[in-house]
Amino acid sequence: MIDPVTLYLLHEALNKPSVVYHAASKFTKTLIPRKSPIGAVKGIGVKEWNKKAIYAASEKYQAIPFGLERVNMMFPFRYTEEEVNGWNKACYLKRNKQRKTLEVWYYNHTPKNPVYLYHVNPVDFKLIGNDPTNVVEQWYTTKIITPIKVEKLLPNQIKSSWKRVNKAAWEIKKQKYKDKGWYK
Known about the structure:
Layout: H1 4-15, E1 20-24, H2 48-51, E2 54-57, H3 60-63, H4 81-85, E3 90-96, E4 101-107, E5 115-120, E6 126-127, E7 138-141, E8 149-153, E9 162-165, H5 167-180
């Protein structure tokens, strides 16, 4: 019987893609590890990739939502209900179960800024978890990386990664946060 750590390392070695993708809203020549704006993942504790890292996805379409502009992004435990009720525009991440990816849903806003998609050599990247329920297969590294190639994508070129929602959908989202106790 193979122990779980060996099984994880074997899975990572056999399934490592030839290129991973990192998306950002700003252009840079080198990628520097930073703390995720989401913060530590609840229930996992502080891991190496929760502190400072460069995050990447194995597919282009999986990385793009992370580079789209963020206007009052709804992260759990970050804002009070009063703060959120005062916003006249916002956005949040939504799972698209059919495409098995994330999308950014905007309320009262249309993205205008480009997304820079960095093609990166995965040699220094490690897989974050091995949970088949994860929507995005994410990789991380704590090293400074120089991209192989950079693509500049305009919002109209990546329309499948974002959606504009109406006030009713926004009210439903706020109610879900309240029901789950995700307000600060």
